[in-house]
Amino acid sequence: MSEGQGLVPGFDGEELPLVPERPEESIEWVVEVYRKQKLKKVSHCLDEILGKGKRSKSLIPLVLLDVNPIMHRQSLLEQVFPAPRIINEDLLEVNRLKIMLDAGSGMGKTIFLKRYLETLLQEPAHPVYCLPVYFHFGDLPESGRFDLFRYAVNREIMDVVLLEQEDNPDLILDEGLLENTVNAIFNYGKCQFLLDGFDQLHPQDRFQFFMESFLEDNAFRSNFVLLASRGFNFGSLSTDAVVKRGEGAAFQMAFQKIDSRQSSAYLGSASKNKKIKDLALFTPELLEVPLLLRMIRELSENELLEGLKNRLEIYSTWFRFKMKLANPSADESWVESCLDQLGEISCQLMTEGRQQRFLDVEPGYEKSTLEGKEILLREGNIVPWWKDILQETKRYWEYRHPSFQEFLAARYIQKDDRWVEIVRENCANERWHEAIKILAGGVPGKELFDILIAEGAVMLAGNSLAEAGDLPREQDLLIRQLLKYQCKETFPQFAQCRQVRVEHVIQYNEPVYLQDLLLRLMKRKHRDSRILFSVIELILARHGMNFHQLLDTFDLEPLKNLEELKEFFAEVTDREQVNKAVLKKFGEMVTIPEGKFIYQEEMDEEDKVLLKEFSIMKFPVTNALYQQFDPQHKNRFPQYSFDNDQPVIGINYYEAIIFALWMGLRLPTEQEWEKAARGTDGRVYPWGEAMGYEKGFANTCDFMTCKTNPVMDLEQGMSPYGCFDMAGNVWEWCMQKNASKHTTQRIVRGGSWMNYLVHAKCVFRNSFDPSERHLAVGLRCVEAPRFTEVESDDMDDL
Fold first, then answer.
1. Residue ranges of domains in the chain, CATH in brackets
2. pTM above 0.85, yes or no
3. I need a surface site. Which of 136, 147, 195, 376 has the fewest CB within 10 A?
């Protein structure tokens, strides 16, 4: 007998049999089963949403853009006007474990994630990230800590794996062992998380989760994470430090805007609908948001689109179609009742200032807002017939697109006898503009537009033109006249307004009404500086004067003598209306004495230009000073000019003219501007020579400041007469004799923060379209005789 025999009962010298490994203990088996079962689930889900076998027709291919800060050196123009790189590689190849996708409502981020999940499951498993998991944060309980997230994700994976028992009844799985294996998969970094609805978390939970998983701890270990969310912030918990760290915590992506070629291909014959094109010119999202494109296509495919004249009719028809499709036995009165109840809630939320389009902190609306409305909410869930209009999580609900709320509110207001009062109270509030635009398709156009114009909401009136029915000719002409000098790039929908002739506006509008309206629009309460040039043009035309001819000849005295404009000109000296300290600080003038100077490159004595004495503003017009003129003005490019002492930018030539008049001044001529900048000795820059590229003299793109500077900063760069920022910072508008007769452009001088130092030379000339609101153009004004230049023939008389 050997030594081993007899020590173990039944041992006869053969090897002991090993206990077979249970399948749920095998990572490979769990991954394989999960992928098989999950593919069935996600494919079934997508078939329900998009239609079985209709993926290619139902989906608009969404292009991903790399919107991360560029780490290599870029020109300033590349920073201001970035051209994001299209991401062609697989997301697993971007060399970052954490990716954030920013996508607005209706852009299809959920379908994108599920389609991406399906693709990952159809292809061979990735050698590292072999377990792709889709998870929606709305499924988390209150207090969305990372440990709760881990528990919920584990449960999701286990539930999918346990489906294998339905296919194989003889299979018995131990959930405890299965959970251990799932934890091992996570710990080994084999998961690929596709996370949706981060914006649906409560702000405090959102902040805590972000800190735990993205900023402070490596909670996700080496697993791959793709987090898709609508734009959000953390509210009062957010600090500059958190925002800065958050920007670098993950690889940033966004969807490329859908272009006209893509939308036309998707819509097919519906893309030729003229009314849709007209509406999209005033509301571009109609042809840029996949959800709204799907709405238009469904109406077209079901022969419901033709004859619809505005968004009120389009949305109403589509809502009815979807609700009857979800509840075929419903009659028209039931649909009306449903829409009325949700419309009442939508209007109430807007009245409370809770417009979904502007929510970036709160995760939607509490379900308590729907309580007692069984037609909307049953047993804590949104009823099924709203599935294409509303979406929900365990605690919150929201509209699938902000325009759905605006349509429902507009529809409700349309039926309210107080609609005139509601419009008058809210038309100055930007948050109500889209709802009022939609409302324009359902109320008497003349009455609505009378209110908007009288309240100074002329831009809103113009943007509502496509929604309204036929307006009286006099009203249509008046609105287009008031909008005729808008920037063609910013407001392409108003480009045709330039064809309106002021004589026709006066001819068709009743004189007393026109007089009262123009006086009302000149008052500070209703002032919109974007339309004041058009208003004054009308006032002058009623007195037989042509505004452009007066400007061509620098003849501004007739304006100051008009009774209608006396109150306007008197404001600047009224201590109750303007802040005199601001005027004194930023409106300071310096005197330019009479005498000759070298203009441009003409160095010969006989070519020098003689100017009479005049005064010019020491600084470019600042945000604070412009705000005194137009209290409703909002900084147009706040990223580049935001403080009170920075120059106002984005002001077009027509607005600059009116501001100068309000100050009791005018814009400088090129000769006046150049003498104030370079003095009499023909210097290249206001301070003399270039001084190399030394900082402290001028704000140009050579120094990559990437924004405007406070106007009092660069003292070293002062001109001989003490003017600041005559080189760099912002271009400044200048007047020219007979400009309207000879050119469609207007001259600017001085260079800017966006241009090179060579463009800031005192002699350098540039030009822009007078309606253009450029982010590097500002102004300064002069107090001067009508003509300061003394012609050579008149010199002997001096």
1. 23-255 (3.40.50.300), 309-471 (no CATH), 489-577 (no CATH), 578-790 (3.90.1580.10)
2. yes
3. 147
